[in-house]
Specification:
- The complex is a heterodimer of chains A (95) and B (324).
- In chain A, strands 1-4 form a two-stranded antiparallel sheet.
- Chain A contains two helices and four strands, in the order βαββαβ.
- With 95 residues, chain A is α+β, with helices and mostly antiparallel strands.
- In chain A, strand 2 and strand 3 form a beta hairpin.
- In chain A, 33% of the residues are buried.
- Helix content of chain B is 41%, strand content 13%.
- In chain B, helix 9 links the parallel strand 5 and strand 6.
- In chain B, helix 5 packs parallel to helix 7.
- The chains are: A alpha+beta (95), B alpha/beta (324).
- At the A-B interface, helix 1 and helix 2 of A face helix 1, helix 3 and helix 11 of B.
Amino acid sequence: MSSNHYFKHEGPWSDAGDPLMCTDTGDWRTKRPVVDKEKCIFCGFCAIYCPIQVMVMQSDTHFEANLDFCKGCGICAKECPKGAITMISEGEFVS
Amino acid sequence: MAEKKQGRLTKVLDYLKHDDPFSKGVAFCPGCGLELLLRFIPRVLGNDIVITGTPSCSAPVLLGQNNQSWHTLSYFGTLMTGAAANATGLVRYYRKAGIDNTVVCFNGDGTANDIGFGNLSGAAERNEPFIYICYDNEGYMNTGIQKSGTTPFGATTTTTPYGTVHRGKNLRRMNLGLKMAMNKIPYTATATLSDLEDLAKKLLKAKEAKERGFCFLHVFAPCPTGWGADPADTIEICRRAVKSNYFPLWEAENGRIRMTKTVKKPKPVDTYTKLMKKFNHMTEADMKILQDDVEYEYCLLGGLSVLEAECQLPVSVKDQGEAS
């Protein structure tokens, strides 16, 4: 959360200082995006088209989804020009 | 290796200059086009914009719940019948108080085209200096997928079902963007989510044109839940809508229409409609009506863009911006 300087006109009743609401949207996911680091050409299409904006730049080489909030819609896998992202069922990650 | 990869980064990221004001886990459906648009606007225009909006899919998130909020933007929730009128009040307050601010009136197609159209029309006539953004998901999605004025011909919704009597919506959709362009307001544009660079340019242009008066943006934002589409296809739906001329991209300054993206060989509309369940029942005859409708609208738009370029603009319209 960045600075709240634009709330200076609001009254003392404001809850602007409270932490933001956040749902555990990662819990909705049935499929998980897995990035192939070799195939990734670092174009950033997955990052701009992700509705939740969870694709994070990893040391200027590839992108990785923040799985705490990824809803598993699969837009990143569909839009990747190199097919570097595959959607894998969550069941395979259950240990 | 790392430097080489850096050069290929998409240009859209250059437009995202500001922080994302929304919290990460926000209650929108997976693959929602609205969520992408809503996160995109403050990242391009800045976090100091004031959003006004109505009960819609965006309201549960923009308005917040109980005593907490989902974002750090300033938001003013209004009724659907008075969206543009309330934004007018806000703009006039800011002008009187001497605060330089961007007011964004963010509504769905139900408010913009049906319920709140009187206000919108009035604000356009008075040339109020704010940005009106209509996200078009072709129906009242928040209340359970009812039909609206922009729902296309043949689409099934809960109020225009497919069965033995009815075959989806039997009326044609309205062209909201063209309606607003005819008001000769300083800036009107249509945009969609598959071309985010174009959307960012139009947003920045609208912010600039806002100084001269009313700006209207019509953004095509698919609703995977309501349309029966795969959430992964959201961007592909937008792309095919543009490529089949179902939703052409254009902008109009003072009513002068200019195409921002021309498709050389338009694809048939069924390349777009087959991605969704809401058009599943369409026969060839139905599809022909939709195709003719799309072609007619595009033809009209093309003709207007040529005519407006040839015609001399009246002086009074040119000076309208500076006078107000």
